[in-house]
Amino acid sequence: MSDLTDLYQSVILDHNKRPRNRGRLPAATRVATGDNPTCGDNCTVYLRLDGDRIAAISFEGQGCAISQASASLMTTQLKGKTAAEAAAAFADFKDIVTTGRQPEEFSETAAFAGVHAFPARIKCATLGWHAALEALKQPDQPSPS
Ligand code: ZN
């Protein structure tokens, strides 16, 4: 079990050190920002939809390792999904971080199960996801580029 714990910790460290899809998305048609003042985290999510699917997604932000690693993971999980699928993926992730439920099979989202022992950090872990779902609710804006 401690091997698994190490593996999960390395997932979070890796996303923190080498964030995926970080930076402004030039062709974004939707943007939403979330703040977590209790920890000092913020996260802006950029989206571009192709039909009803997320064709491209990126984030920018600052804050604790949990918030930034979770936002990075979120971009990898939501790319290619519809708004309904993204909401389902978030519900699953939120269940993992609030209950500590461990899926039977290894998944990167399960790396965040340990967060449930630190309730104040749940907002850190869900910050980027909330911003993404907020962006999905918006109407399309004209692309700046
Ligand atoms: Zn935080």
Which helices and strands, and how do they pair?
Layout: H1 2-17, E1 30-36, E2 41-50, E3 53-62, H2 65-78, H3 83-99, H4 122-137
Antiparallel strand pairs: 1-2, 2-3
Helix pairs in contact: 1-2, 2-4, 3-4
This protein binds zinc ion.
Write up this protein.
- The protein is of the alpha+beta class and 145 residues long.
- It has a single domain (3-137), classed as Sufe protein. Chain: A (Alpha-Beta Complex).
- It has helices at residues 2-17, 65-78, 83-99, 122-137; strands spanning 30-36, 41-50, 53-62.
- Bound molecules: zinc ion (ZN).
- Zinc ion (ZN) binds at residues 36, 39, 41, 63-64, 66-67, 124.
- Zinc ion binds next to helix 2.
Share of β-strand residues: 15-25%
What count of structural domains?
A: 1
Shape: globular
Question: Helix content range of the residues, please?
Answer: 40-55%
Ligands present: zinc ion
Count of strand segments: 3
CATH overall fold name = Sufe protein. Chain: A
Give the SSE order as H and E letters.
Answer: HEEEHHH
Q: What top-tier CATH class fits best?
A: Alpha Beta
Number of helices: 4
What is the average of the pLDDT values?
A: 93
Strand order within the widest beta sheet: 1-2-3
Work out the radius of gyration: 15 Å
At CATH level 2, the architecture is Alpha-Beta Complex
The separation of the N and C termini measures: 49 Å
Query: What's the oligomerization state?
Result: single chain
Instruction: Give the low-pLDDT segments.
Output: none
By helix and strand content, what is the structural category? alpha+beta
What is the makeup of the main sheet? 3 strands, antiparallel
